[in-house]
């Protein structure tokens, strides 16, 4: 799978309406089309229209109850990946299979990273391009907030970790040697995406680098009681 193409598809998917914002009629028509498409992609030659109606009604209800925050385009991606076997073997085109696909998609690493990346881009764009000093002050406030959030909950991931790490490194606060960086990457060398989703080796290495940067940022935070620029 080409990660760039997948990323663009994900971006477009997040621009489509959420399940909660769709009318029952539109949702039913949409789900029916996705079920029929799944039959075709998996290789079924025929299907029973009565079965499709039952599946549509139940799946629409489940989506409204358990996945109202998902976007319409995300369902398209989820079903496409499921039909291609990215979420493991399927036992026919049935409700159990669709629920398995939805759960796998919802908890996938790539969806999580896409959400974080979009949040990251949104937050960075919120920094006005007024002056270097102004932006540095805003970045300091962001780092201070993330620092204290991490100190309070060290088991949680740090949002925007890669950007924070690069900023602190560029200003000389973090001074990891090449050996330390390679050691950090080695700790995540066996990382693979969840749910058997396939990505290229280059894309896998890029994800490992992000995880290593977050780990190094945490080590830096662990070494401090207070940030050097915290008043």
From TrEMBL:
This is Uncharacterized protein.
């Amino acid at each position: 799978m080409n990660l760039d193409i997948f990323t663009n598809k994900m971006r477009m998917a997040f621009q489509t309406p959420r399940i909660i914002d769709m009318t029952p009629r539109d949702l039913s028509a949409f789900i029916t089309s996705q079920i029929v498409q799944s039959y075709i992609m998996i290789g079924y030659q025929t299907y029973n229209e009565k079965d499709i109606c039952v599946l549509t009604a139940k799946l629409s209800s489940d989506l409204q109850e358990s996945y109202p925050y998902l976007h319409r385009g995300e369902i398209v991606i989820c079903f496409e990946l499921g039909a291609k076997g990215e979420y493991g073997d399927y036992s026919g085109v049935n409700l159990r299979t669709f629920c398995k696909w939805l759960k796998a998609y919802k908890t996938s690493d790539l969806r999580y990273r896409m959400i974080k990346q979009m949040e990251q881009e949104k937050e960075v764009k919120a920094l006005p391009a007024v002056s270097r000093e102004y932006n540095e002050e805003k970045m300091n406030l962001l780092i201070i907030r993330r620092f204290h959030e991490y100190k309070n909950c060290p088991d949680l991931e740090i949002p925007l970790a890669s950007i924070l790490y690069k900023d602190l490194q560029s200003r000389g606060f973090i001074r990891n040697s090449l050996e330390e960086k390679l050691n950090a990457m080695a700790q995540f060398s066996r990382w693979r995406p969840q749910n058997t989703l396939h990505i290229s080796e280059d894309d896998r290495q890029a994800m490992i680098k992000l995880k290593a940067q977050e780990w190094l940022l945490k080590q830096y935070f662990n070494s401090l009681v207070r940030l050097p620029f915290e008043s």
